[in-house]
Amino acid sequence: MGDFFQVHTRGDTWELCEKLSASPATIEYNGAEPIMVSSSPGAVGDLFLYNSSNHQLISVKEPFAKKYLKEKLVASNSSLAPHVLKTLQNQ
């Protein structure tokens, strides 16, 4: 959606990403028809889970993401950047 994300780790299904940019919603044109293109949710620095097979982006603050991260990533992946681990542990 026009924003940039840094992938911190990849799981079997989900990737842990950090939002690095916040592009404003813009109007683009499909021929002569205007189309509103919105940016992704959240602010710069927010963490998300991303599923590339269905293009689903979920904030780590959502209940599903908290459970997944606790079970899969935080417990088994100490190679995450310190600021990412701190953010995840404070959720």
Could you walk me through the main structural features you see in this protein, from its secondary elements to its overall organization?
It is a single chain. This protein has 91 residues and is α+β, with helices and mostly antiparallel strands. It has helices at residues 63-74, 82-89; strands spanning 5-10, 15-19, 26-30, 33-37, 47-51, 56-59. The protein has one domain (5-89). It is built from two helices and six strands; from the N terminus they run E-E-E-E-E-E-H-H. The protein has a four-stranded antiparallel β-sheet, covered by helices on one side. The protein is elongated.
Task: Pick out its properties.
about 90 residues, alpha+beta, two-stranded antiparallel sheet, about 35% strand
TL;DR?
This protein is of the alpha+beta class and 91 residues long.
In whole angstroms, the N-to-C terminal distance is: 25 Å
Secondary-structure-based class equals alpha+beta
Largest sheet: 4 strands, antiparallel
Query: What's the overall average pLDDT, rounded?
Result: 77
The run of helices and strands is: EEEEEEHH
Main sheet: strand order: 1-2-5-6
The total tally of domains equals 1
Give the number of helices.
Answer: 2
**Number of DSSP strands?**
6
Radius of gyration: 15 Å
Helical residue percent band: 10-25%
Low-confidence stretches: none
Judging from the principal axes of the Cα atoms, what is the shape? elongated
**What percent strand?**
25-35%
